[in-house]
Amino acid sequence: MSPFKGQTGLKRILNAGGYSLDGLRAAFIGEAAFRQLVLLNVILIPVAFVLNVSHVERALLIAVCMLALIVELLNSAVEAAIDRISLERHPLSKNAKDMGSAAQLVALSMIAMVWTVILI
Questions:
Q1: CB 110 within 8 Å of CB 102
Q2: 72 catalytic, yes or no?
């Protein structure tokens, strides 16, 4: 069992919230791609609210934008873990990082497709 486990109830929830804020802060400070996606969300999400679309379409427009942030956080976490293990070049490390990048490409493509389908 991990020595970092053990908190329960409200204390666990407060700790988890703090860790989440720490992760968002680290991503914003250390990851240019995350900052770019935040900027994209700052632009697209308000636009989604002024478009003449249904509530479900609006939710989809916003959800795909938020999904790209989630994918970038996971991609950055994978990259950090790989770099923590070793900075040495290794085919498996490259594969892991490339797959994280590919996941982000799919998420960004999904933004383009969903916005295009809904707006056309």
A1: no
A2: yes
Ordered domains of the chain (ranges, CATH): 32-119 (1.10.287.3610)
pLDDT at position 44 over 90: yes
Q: What is the mean pLDDT of the chain?
A: 94
For 3, the 3-state DSSP assignment is coil
Q: What is the DSSP letter of 4?
A: T
> For residue 26, is pLDDT > 70?
yes
57 in a labelled binding site: no
pLDDT at residue 2, rounded to an integer: 67
List the catalytic residue out of 48, 72, 73, 104: 72
Q: Does the annotation list 84 as a binding residue?
A: no
Quick check: helix, strand or coil at residue 54? coil
pTM assigned to the model: 0.86
- Tell me the percentage of the chain whose pLDDT exceeds 90: 85
Does the annotation list 11 as a binding residue?
no
Using CA of residue 51, residue 53, residue 54, residue 58, what is the dihedral sign? negative
